[in-house]
Write a structure and sequence with these properties.
Low-confidence stretches: none
Radius of gyration: 24 Å
Strand content: 15-25%
Number of strands: 10
Helix content: 40-55%
Largest sheet: 8 strands, mixed
Distance between the termini: 79 Å
Structural class: alpha/beta
Strand order of the largest sheet: 3-2-1-4-5-6-7-8
């Protein structure tokens, strides 16, 4: 079937390529005209503008928006809505906040346009292995574009999970769980790295991926990374970004009075990773020195003598 794709970044490009391999007809737009040229060479039809993209579609039109959440999604939905008609479908496949998706859906509904919010997991491996899709919104619209979801996903890797907002809400919680899993693996491997046994972390990751209860695709990726980088990870800086879903998951837990300490602390650890040196750690060291005479490390690696009594 026909689909318009707005956004050809890491995910959008691979999704478009996978749909082309399944013989769907793709019309593609991106601000980067060079990227559009690359996907046209793969069989898509390029568009110079969003208006041009919508104009090339026929019948009941479906447009997938795959751009960063926030302002880019906001402006793309507003722009595409100018050119769509009654019954046409907009799919937001980015990592949008579900509250934004509810608002976008209501805005489009006033124009007679149907909105589907689709949480997408699978990362850069989705092209080869298939994506995982959590879709919220109108069930009839879902059924209409289901051939698109079927082509993108692994077997049993897509589902209509509920009404409008449910797709992005479930993806938000999915990513919150991911935060906790990543943090657990990270802490375990750091303990192993500093242990006095000289562990080969690639060897252990490989071992655990064969029959242990902690085996997972994420651990397979760790195994692959240790094979490339070595146990010391000397070339990697310990700075970890977050794209929003962890924060939103923690807020949802607070709103529902649900304790989620693992996810919350894993989010805090990401914040800590971005500090060249933690000011809060300095405060703790300073106060510990005051009440307990504990040593304080200074610039250059020296350690001050413990304070035994107040000045």
């Amino acid at each position: 079937m026909q689909l318009g794709m707005i956004g050809l970044g890491r995910m959008g490009y691979n999704m478009t390529l996978r749909l082309l391999k399944h013989n769907h007809q793709l019309f593609a737009f991106d601000l980067n005209t060079e990227t559009v040229g690359h996907i046209v060479a793969e069989g898509a039809t390029g568009a110079a503008t969003i208006a041009d993209l919508v104009g090339k579609l026929s019948g009941r039109r479906a447009v997938w928006i795959m751009v960063p959440s926030g302002g880019a999604t906001e402006s793309s939905i507003a722009e595409v809505a100018k050119y769509l008609s009654l019954g046409d479908i907009v799919i937001d496949g980015g990592n949008s906040n579900y509250k934004d998706s509810l608002r976008h859906g209501e805005m489009l509904k006033e124009k007679g346009i149907v909105f589907l919010d689709c949480g997408v997991s699978g990362g850069i491996w989705g092209l080869e292995n298939g994506f995982n899709l959590m879709v919220g919104g109108d069930k009839d619209a879902f059924d209409y574009v289901e051939p698109i979801f079927e082509a993108l996903a692994q077997k049993d890797g897509y589902a209509h999970v509920g009404p409008m907002g449910a797709g992005h809400y479930s993806k938000m919680i999915h990513n919150g769980i991911e935060y906790g899993m990543l943090q657990s693996y990270a802490e375990g491997f750091e303990i192993l790295h500093k242990a006095p046994f000289g562990f080969d972390l690639h060897q252990l990751a490989t071992l655990w991926n064969n029959g242990s209860v902690v085996r997972s695709w994420m651990l397979e990726l760790a195994e692959r990374a240790f094979a490339k980088e070595g146990s010391d990870l000397a070339a990697i800086r310990g700075w970890v970004d977050d794209s929003g879903e962890g924060r939103w998951t923690v807020q949802a837990a607070i709103d529902l009075d649900i304790p989620a300490p693992v996810i919350m602390l894993s989010l805090m650890e990401r914040f800590i990773s971005r500090q060249g040196e933690s000011y809060s750690a300095k405060v703790i060291a300073m106060i510990r020195n005051e009440f307990g005479g504990h040593a304080v490390k200074k610039e250059g690696g020296e350690t001050t003598a413990p304070k035994l009594k107040p000045d």
